[in-house]
Amino acid sequence: MAKNDVSFPPPTFDPRTLIHDFGSQRNWQMSAAEVLALQGILDRIKPELSLEIGTFAGGSLQAISRFSKSVITLDIDPTVAGKLASQFPNVRFVTGDSKRLIPDLIPQIDAGPDRLGFVLIDGDHTSDGVRADINNLLAIVPKRMVVFLMHDSFNPDCRRGMRGANWDACPYVHYVELDFITGGFCAEAFDTAQAGSMWAGLACAVLLPEKRTFPLKISESQGHLQRLLFPLSIHSRGHSRLRRWCGKLRRVVTNSGG
Predict the structure, then answer these.
(1) Domains of the chain
(2) In the chain, which ranges are continuous DSSP H helix?
(3) Alpha-carbon distance 178 to 221, whole Å?
(4) What was the pLDDT predicted at 147?
């Protein structure tokens, strides 16, 4: 070997393992980036107790239950527990409206033996519903670092609720980023998303036991992209008018031989 040559040990990371792990998960309504971010955070913080709002088919619950000592999951659908409870022995299933359930759960969590470390908010997707879930959860007095992940932050209604939550009123909030993982524009219908809709994206907030000593900033690192796509989406009031204008433009271009 020449004097200046550098030898590297064989890589310990096998991408085939990653593909297998991701492919083995079922019932996810998250992108690959979101799944990996969720699993990476859970693996890093290893929560004693996690809270999930919006169980649905148990996709994200697979990861949350795997990395957490215990989990509480909420869903308004009364059939969810019967379908999934046998698969998740460390999970407590609670049925009902999260806006009513969370205020009663917080004292139970505070009094319990396991410290809350992780929250996934993915239930009510209206602005008022998202904002209410966040505001109710901000009553938590953290005993350790607590990470909030909020799904569908790219959706205009969900984002409005996230942006309008009373983050600043909670002295334990140290970090809020609405574009922790960027969502996207559905040009075509996909799964439950309509063509022209904006979905996905993970917002992230971090609460610490010590009170912050600085002004809180709500970061939107991809806010310009979200605002750029909004007028083109079905969420915009001008969407129908814009579609008609684009249709006329295409006809003009086609007829002109362009």
Answers:
(1) 27-222 (3.40.50.150)
(2) 15-24, 32-45, 59-67, 80-84, 98-111, 127-137, 156-163, 223-229, 239-255
(3) 7
(4) 98
The tally of CA atoms less than 13 A away on the side-chain side of residue 119 is 28
- The pLDDT confidence band at residue 251, using thresholds 50, 70 and 90, is low
First-to-final CA distance of the chain: 61
Segment 111-126 shows an average pLDDT of 96
Tokens 């809350």, residue located? 116
pLDDT for the residue numbered 3: 45
Distance CA 134, CA 129 (A): 9
What are the structure tokens assigned to 52, written together? 């999930």
Note the pLDDT tens digit of each residue in 172-223: 999 999 999 999 999 898 888 899 999 999 999 999 999 999 999 999 999 9
Rounded Cα–Cα distance for residues 61 and 70 (Å): 11
Q: Hey, what's the torsion of the CAs at 132, 134, 137, 143, to 10 degrees?
A: -170
Instruction: Output the DSSP codes for 24-53.
Output: H--S--S-HHHHHHHHHHHHHH--SEEEEE
